[in-house]
Amino acid sequence: MSIRWSVVLFGLIFFAGTLSAAEHEVGQKNKNFTVESLKIKVGDIVSFPNYDSFYHNVYSLSPVKIFDLGSYAKGQTQKVKFEKAGKVTVQCAIHPDMKMTIDVQ
Fold first, then answer.
1. What is the pLDDT of residue 5?
2. Per-residue confidence at 1, pLDDT binned at 50, 70, 90?
3. For the whole model, what pTM was predicted?
4. 30-86 pLDDT, tens per residue?
5. If 0-12 CB within 10 Å is exposed, 13-18 middle and 19+ buried, where does residue 72 land?
6. Would you list the DSSP string of 42-97?
């Protein structure tokens, strides 16, 4: 196979992988996440809209995906892309009882 065809093949595989990524929503309402658990695929994106009238701070210290979205107000949404498989525990730094799990497959 020539180098040119290898580049074309790689581009098609990469492009096909980006088409299969999905976006999921986990809202924050009444000091809770709208789901307790979520199954997604590697490469998927999860959006975290704030539906409450007060601030939330979504974060994870799980080795699979460490992130901190900072504090944000009602009507704002933050997004996270999950690149590795495994279980991710997600919490709110402002409301310690808020907790959910994302299973990245």
1. 52
2. low
3. 0.80
4. 999 999 999 999 999 999 999 999 999 999 999 999 999 999 999 999 999 999 999
5. middle
6. TT-EEEEEB-SSS-EEEEEEETTEEEEEEEE-TT-EEEEE--S-EEEEEEESS-TT
Q: Which of 17, 41, 18, 36 is nearest to 26 (CA)?
A: 36
**Tokens coding 23:** 């976006």
Q: Tell me the C-alpha to C-alpha distance, in Å, between residue 28 and each of 5, 78, 87.
A: 47, 11, 20
Q: What's the DSSP call for residue 105?
A: -
Beta strands 99-104; 86-92: pairing state: antiparallel
- At 70, which amino acid appears? G
By the 8 A CB rule, do 56 and 34 touch? no
